[in-house]
């Protein structure tokens, strides 16, 4: 009796030089909608006032005279392999005139009347959401002065609305920060009146309330409850100093991720059409889609792409120049590796913005034949599509790695 074992390999690749199918461009966030109505804001402020009043009766002391220096309010899980996981879509709108938009850097990266900083997750925000990969953390020490939880958190352009999930912190200078659009039931277990420290977990990024996709709405008010823009710039009329311990540049072009896919990746909403189609395992006759995901890539930015064989020989290379500045962008290429190999570990490199990024993959033959009398191979590891160790899970693509270096792709249907 013969048994066929499907062997797969890690393999990313991409080619534009030979006019192989390609695509991509801007990732449209569609998040130019007010997070909260005026009535919702009134209710939130009334709740905060009542909670602060109750602190006095409970002898809870809030500090108001200590300087603050904010850390970045997001943090990725250590198991996430992406190089970067976020971008900024909207800053505070400095122009109070209806119909006019002005951000702190004298440009228009905001929307009319926006009172916060919107930080979106990217690429595949719903994949990141489903796997709880991105934490919202406290930008400074403080006290929880309000919380909202239990609201739907998977909103898209066609389903946005309703109340959000949020944590509200009064930091040690008296400033009040709203951390909004969080994931249902992910909020810190700490209650109103309890203290948090800088970088402490508050919740997970999601899309609750009037939101078109997963992002954090960070809204800051000073000790007098005046709106603050944490970014220092020549068009910031709200405050003169930066509130960040290390303020980011207005644009920070970066490669967020190099990924390999078994079909064209699809961006969209949960349950509708987002499908990353991520795969690091390919065999002869498979179609491979290799993609690069960027934030803040600017017009004129150049990226050089190189594919190397297991012998470290350049198999293909090309350059690409950005024609437009985007908050988020992505590009993919379709390629079939040579049927006669070489087989083994291939490399895909991108040289971008002074850095080199590397993605390794295996390209192997498709089948091995095993006689029933042959000594059974031993399973040593099960991984998911990103190569992370996992247990056997139903209805998901998993890869079974054996001691003879073969890999078996399985989906257990239940």
Question: What are the SSEs and their pairings?
Answer:
Elements (H helix, E strand, L loop, with lengths): L1 E5 L15 E5 L11 H20 L16 E3 L9 E5 L26 E5 L3 H6 L3 E4 L4 E7 L17 E6 L4 E5 L14 E2 L4 E4 L10 E7 L5 E2 L25 E8 L19 E3 L4 E8 L6 E7 L5 E8 L6 E8 L8 E9 L2 E10 L2 E5 L7 E5 L14 E5 L4 E4 L4
Parallel strand pairs: 15-21
Antiparallel strand pairs: 1-22, 2-19, 3-6, 4-5, 5-12, 6-11, 7-8, 7-10, 8-9, 9-12, 12-13, 14-16, 16-19, 17-18, 17-20, 20-21, 23-24, 24-25
Quick structural overview:
The chain is 6% helix and 34% strand.
Structural description of this entry:
With 414 residues, this protein is mostly beta strands. It has 2 helices and 25 strands. The protein has helices at residues 38-57, 125-130, and strands at 2-6, 22-26, 74-76, 86-90, 117-121, 134-137, 142-148, 166-171, 176-180, 195-196, 201-204, 215-221, 227-228, 254-261, 281-283, 288-295, 302-308, 314-321, 328-335, 344-352, 355-364, 367-371, 379-383, 398-402, 407-410. A hairpin with a 4-residue loop joins β8 (166-171) and β9 (176-180). The longest helix has 20 residues, at 38-57. It is globular, with a radius of gyration of 24 Å. The chain starts with a strand and ends with a strand.
Structure keywords:
414 residues, mainly beta, five-stranded mixed β-sheet, 2 helices, disordered N terminus
Structural class: mainly beta
Q: How many β-strands, per DSSP?
A: 25
Name the beta content range: 25-35%
N to C succession of SSEs? EEHEEEHEEEEEEEEEEEEEEEEEEEE
Straight-line distance between termini: 28 Å
Mean pLDDT: 86
Helix content: under 10%
Low-confidence stretches: 1-19, 367-376
